[in-house]
Specification:
alpha/beta; Rossmann fold; two-stranded parallel sheet; 11 helices; 42% helix; globular; binds nicotinamide-adenine-dinucleotide; binds uridine-5'-diphosphate-4-deoxy-4-fluoro-alpha-D-galactose
Length: 330
């Protein structure tokens, strides 16, 4: 069975569904810090399958040990973590405790129960400000905020575990910018409060919750002056986890992959595409650059294609349409 941590979250719920649809058996857990049980019910409904789900916290080993005791776990896909860059700057210790200590707690239980396979949610943030694009997996690493540091530290911890135990296998998946939602409209991303990321902010603007979108800078050295990112459909990302799991079931050691499309789109590309496929207005105003933002980030996803046989298939139109379908009536 595959243990999915952070299963009720945005990427966890889509991956859980993909695993079930591929005939895998799963167990989920979450502490509902940034999600609700609705996503768990939706995954059960969409897959037509039941699975054990626990309310547990990475910081509370006893709550997690119950899961290891009661189930026969073969591998872990580890999504649980805090992910807000700004909050991590304001509350670094919360991030180090939750993400790093939490992962160490999980690894200790994996060791105790002989579980030696882990897929980890890393991030393109570990490339810092890349000197060139597209970004390859062997580019140098650096971070600019505590959230990014937690990802880099955890990558290092997992590499050390693989050195200490030659049977251990890990996939470090460096996601670029996940957006979009499952076509059913039943699972997706709907953060509480004012979100930080572009797509949820476009959605809130289209709904009238935000009066206008702030475009953070139109003076970047890019074709239209706005920041360029590699937006990837969350369902493509979910499929990438299945491919990575297949890989680490066959081969021990550390396997690092960029999960992106290899294409860069600007802020204006997103606004324009979103407004046109959904037939809605997205009013915006141009503001100064946001501190810490990098002009252009996109992946070279060749390694994942060659070694995992995985590549992203869905287009930007699909990403914009499904994001809106999920939130428009909420
Ligand atoms: P999310 O917040 O929707 O999901 C994370 C889940 O983990 C939430 O349901 C939350 O309640 C849970 N969680 C947090 N701390 C926990 C704890 N101590 N114990 C148990 N559960 C806990 O975020 P997401 O977008 O689905 O991200 C999943 C993973 O991917 C995270 O590790 C994130 O850092 C990483 N990631 C996300 C992005 C992105 O843009 N969404 C990009 C790169 C990497
Ligand atoms: N942007 C705006 N207006 C907004 C929000 C964002 O113009 O209201 C712009 C940003 O300046 C950037 C682009 O939209 O050019 C994307 O910004 P996001 O905040 O959506 O995403 P980032 O690339 O800045 O960061 C995201 C996650 C990080 C993760 C990183 C990995 O938030 O956690 O991707 O690549 F580390």
């Amino acid at each position: 069975m595959i243990l999915v941590t952070g299963m009720s979250g945005y990427i966890g719920s889509h991956t859980a569904l993909a695993l079930l649809n591929a005939g895998r058996e799963i167990i989920g857990f979450d502490n509902f810090y940034n999600s609700t049980a609705e996503a768990v019910e939706a995954v059960k409904k969409l897959s037509g399958k039941d699975f054990p789900f626990y309310t547990a916290d990475l910081r509370d080993p006893d709550s997690m040990e119950k899961i290891f005791k009661e189930n026969n776990i073969d591998a872990v896909i580890h999504f649980a973590g805090l992910k807000a860059v700004g909050e991590s700057v304001a509350k670094p210790l919360l991030y180090y405790e939750n993400n790093i200590s939490g992962t160490v707690n999980l690894l200790k239980l994996m060791e105790k129960y002989g579980v030696k396979r882990l897929v980890f949610s890393s991030s393109a943030t570990v490339y810092g400000e890349p000197k060139t694009v597209p970004i390859k997996e062997d580019f140098p690493n650096s971070t600019t905020n505590p959230y990014g540091s937690t990802k880099l530290y955890i990558e290092g911890i997992l590499k050390d575990v693989c050195v200490s135990d030659k049977d251990f296998s890990v996939a470090l998946l460096r996601y670029f910018n996940p957006i979009g939602a499952h076509e059913s409209g039943l699972i997706g991303e709907n953060p509480n409060g004012i979100p930080n990321n572009l797509m949820p902010r476009i959605c809130q603007t289209a709904k009238g919750i935000m009066k206008e979108l702030t475009v953070f800078g139109d003076d970047y050295p890019t074709p239209d002056g706005t920041g360029v990112r590699d937006y990837i459909h969350v369902c493509d990302l979910a499929d990438g986890h299945l491919a990575a799991l297949n890989k680490i079931e066959k081969e021990s050691g550390v396997h690092i992959y960029n999960l992106g499309t290899g294409k860069g789109y600007s802020v204006y590309d997103l606004i324009r595409t979103f407004a046109s496929v959904n037939n809605v207005d997205v009013p915006y105003k141009v503001c100064p650059r946001r501190a810490g933002d990098v002009p252009v980030v996109y992946a070279d996803p060749t390694k994942a294609k060659e070694e995992l046989g995985w590549e992203a298939k869905r287009e930007l139109e699909d990403m914009c349409k499904s994001s809106w379908d999920f939130v428009k009536d909420k």
